[in-house]
Write a structure and sequence with these properties.
Order of helices and strands: HHEEEEEHHHH
Number of strands: 5
Number of helices: 6
Largest sheet: 5 strands, antiparallel
Distance between the termini: 72 Å
Strand order of the largest sheet: 1-2-3-4-5
Radius of gyration: 24 Å
Length: 182
């Protein structure tokens, strides 16, 4: 089924295939440092995904079809979730995914090293954003706890860490806390 939809990778681009099975089925197409992985989780999310990986197994650098929309102008992938997980629905979604890949496969092959660098930069930014969001959440939790305990010095200290990230109500709480300590 996957090989039928993605046979262009084998016939036109010389990729080789590898199938893996567990709770999800995975088909990988491999060529010159690039692995294109098609994954279908039929047990849980019923989602199809396409990832482009470095062939180096120790590399954490990869990107999916949606990341390509950020890196390659004109690539607008469609979501690939099958609510009706039957043969026809799956084949239709695989064909759509294959068509999306055909729009950018030449760019992937020609510029895969640059795309991996861009993907790594995107992943680093996403990691930094996640880390910042976790820090802000932690600061807010500490500020809320201090507010509950009427520890106004701690409230001020925590909200000052947030700076411009303070919401309107947090600014009001900080103003109130400042009045309480002065």
């Amino acid at each position: 089924m996957v090989q039928e939809s993605f046979k262009f990778l084998i016939e036109e681009y010389g990729f080789r295939t590898q199938k893996l099975f567990n709770q999800t089925w995975i088909t990988r197409f491999r060529k010159h440092g690039i692995v294109i992985e098609i994954c279908c989780d039929g047990e849980n999310s019923r989602e199809l995904s396409l990832s482009v990986l470095k062939a180096n197994p120790f590399s954490e650098c990869d990107f999916d079809i949606h990341d390509l929309a950020l890196m390659i102008p004109g690539v607008y992938p469609t979501p690939h979730t099958c609510s009706n997980f039957n043969y026809e629905g799956l084949q239709s979604n695989l064909n759509t995914l294959a068509n999306d890949l055909q729009l950018c496969i030449d760019t992937i092959i020609k510029h895969h090293k640059k795309l991996f660098k861009a993907a790594l930069a995107i992943q680093s930014l996403e990691d930094a954003v996640s880390s910042t969001e976790r820090q802000i959440k932690s600061i807010r939790a500490k500020a809320d706890q201090a507010w509950e305990e009427k520890d106004y010095l701690q409230v001020i200290e925590e909200y000052e860490k947030l700076g411009t990230q303070c919401s309107e109500s947090e600014v009001m709480k900080m103003e109130y806390a400042l009045k309480q300590v002065h």
